Amino acid sequence: MAGQGQPIFILREGSKRTRGRDAQNNNIMAAKAVAEAVRTTLGPKGMDKMLVDGMGDVVITNDGATILKEMDIEHPAAKMVVEVSKTQDEEVGDGTTSAAVVAGELLKKAEDLIEQEIHPTIIASGYRLAAEKATEVLKSLAMTVEMSNRNLLISISETAMTGKGAESSKRILSEIAVDAVTSVVDINEKNTVDKDNINVVKKVGGRVDDSELIPGMIIDKERVHTNMPEKVNDAKIVLLNSAIELKDTEVDAEISITSPDQLQSFLDQEEKMLKDIVNKVIDSGANVVFCQKGVEDLAQHYLAKAGIFAVRRVKKSDMEKLARATGGKLITNMDEITPEDLGYAQSVEEKRVGGDNMTFVTGCNNPKAVTILLRGGTEHVVDSIASALEDAIRVVGVAIEDEKLVAGGGSPEVEVALRLQEYAATLEGREQLAVKAYAEALEVIPRTLAENAGLDPIDMLMELRSQHEKGVKTAGLDVYEGKVVDMWEAFVVEPLRVKTQVVNAATESAVMILRIDDIIASTRAAPSPEEMGGMGGMPPGMGGMPPGMPPMM
Fold it and tell me: Would you say 519 and 28 are in contact if contact means Cβ atoms under 8 Å apart?
């Protein structure tokens, strides 16, 4: 029977394989589902999502990246769209929802083209051409912004915060964000912003308007002893990685004491050793100590007696920020403290904020270290505002680095879509259809802005196209008035990089998903009874009956 061969299985039993059109449809549907999940959050009138994790913790947000990160997504193609949003957040800090929505719409349009028997590789090629052209058009629309133009930078920050739970106080928060970013800019040949120099401390209590910018550092700790000074001027700061306490022996050891004199001398020696450690700090000339680990009670007494301000159990991240701010070095070995290792600040003071004592380090050696103290009525409010402020800081930083802005409100998307329609007409072959589909996909942004604001998306889109055809390149949608206005005059502006990143990231992920025509999903092998433990594959302790139970008849 040479003609009848036995079937050969190359995959593990239980593995699942999906091929061809089924695989493509499966992936496209998953990606579209992710885009739909965040679509209603887009724009100033977007709605929020409440996410509850397995531990019962609640997150309320309309930030696309946060929503997709908190959602427990399993589908591999859906995870790719989540990656788009994550990359957008890491690169520019804003436009995370737009990136996911555009990626989903590109795949939706591609699905229509596939049904018209256009090969996915041709669609991918057309999408790449369209993305290049879109980036070129966006750059031609960009206007220049200078760091000295504070009002324009505040407008950028307000645009990023709009619709993110910080509406009522966005002016104050935007001013704080702009002042924080401009104070940490490194002005070389090219402006650079190191966001790590901006420390954000959240404190529940008070109103959002009570938030403030502190030129220095805030450590959410209090001094270790009440006899220590509350304020130290002209502070010389030592940053310790090691504990100010006696070390235990490395090996098990016993000390045999046979008389009260020996016990007393043992205690005296311990006291002397602690005093020697404190004396090393005093001899260095330091009058403030920040310790990452513990400070023994007796050492606290000696430090207080010497008039030294000490804080213990400071977080490692805070220690590193203090080192950057004060110019001090992190010291691990107490024997190596020298005056050159000390940091400097004009004042270190303990203040009461929202019922807790906090340590303020101001007038640091490095003026490029600032702290934003965020206040709010509840923990959820503070978290929501911190997320909005984070986006604003990132966006202002990007605008200062690139010095390029575009209008917001769906304006660049409509302009790019019109220019792509013109560009498609110059192409030969089936790529022309893909470029047209790409142009239509970009219009999902103004359409969604209109839908989320309760406006008629078709009417608004027609009006936008009409204005752009007349040459008003900055015409966008004012969702509050429900009409098309000049976004530049309304001060609704965004950094160019936000838009170019949306185009590039969404295109790359859509192309990657389109090129997949075979999905092989392996299943985990079931654990053996020995691995499970207990009897019959049951977890340990489940195999038998609990002790004391009567036998079953």
Answer: no
Whole-number pLDDT of residue 462: 92
- Closest residue by Cα to residue 414 from 448, 378, 387, 386: 448
Report the alpha-carbon angle 308-310-313, nearest 5. 165
pLDDT of residue 363: 84
User: Are residues 310 and 260 in contact, defined by beta-carbon separation less than 8 angstroms?
Assistant: no
Cα 531 to Cα 525: distance, rounded to the nearest angstrom = 12
Q: Answer whether 64's CB lies under 8 Å from 164's CB.
A: no
Residue 1 has pLDDT above 50, yes or no: no
Residue with tokens 């190191």: 194
Task: Give whole-number Cα distances, 545 to 361, 534, 541, 548, 552, in Å.
Answer: 62, 11, 8, 9, 10
Amino acid at 188: N
Residue 541 to residue 545: CA distance in whole angstroms: 8
pLDDT tens-digit map of 23-46: 778 888 888 888 888 888 888 888
CB atoms under 10 Å from CB of 332, counted, come to 10
For the CA atoms of the chain, what is the radius of gyration? 31
Q: State the DSSP code for 312.
A: -
Exposed, middle or buried, 417 (CB in 10 Å: 0-12/13-18/19+)? buried
Angstrom distance (rounded) from CA 245 to CA 102: 58
pLDDT by residue (tens digit) across 49-78?
A: 888 887 888 888 877 778 888 887 888 888
**Per-residue confidence (pLDDT) for residue 544, from 0 to 100:** 47
C-beta of residue 421 within 8 angstroms of C-beta of residue 439: yes
* Beta-sheet strand order (sheet of 404-407): 143-144, 404-407, 493-495
Tell me the pTM. Answer: 0.77
Higher pLDDT, 367 or 157: 157
Residue labelled with tokens 């192409």: 427
The mean of the pLDDT values for the chain is: 82
Q: For 274-301, how does the pLDDT look when each residue is reduced to its tens digit (9 = 90+)?
A: 888 888 888 888 889 999 888 888 888 8
pLDDT band at 133 (very low <50, low <70, confident <90, very high): very high
d(CA 195, CA 176): 14
Q: Which two tokens stand for residue 260?
A: 């009260």
Whether 396 and 181 have beta carbons less than 8 Å apart is answered as: yes
Residues with Cβ within 8 Å of 448's Cβ and at least 6 positions away in sequence, in order, are: 39, 42, 43, 101, 457
- In the prediction, which pLDDT does 535 show? 47
- Helix-helix angle 76-91:20-39, to 10 degrees: 40
Could you tell me what percent of the chain has a pLDDT over 90? 12
- By C-alpha distance, which of 158, 88, 167, 129 is closest to 381? 167
3-state secondary structure at position 454:
coil
- CA 288/CA 349 separation, integer angstroms: 10
Structure-token pair, residue 473: 């390149």
Length of the chain: 553
| Catalytic residue numbers, as ranges | 63, 96-97, 391
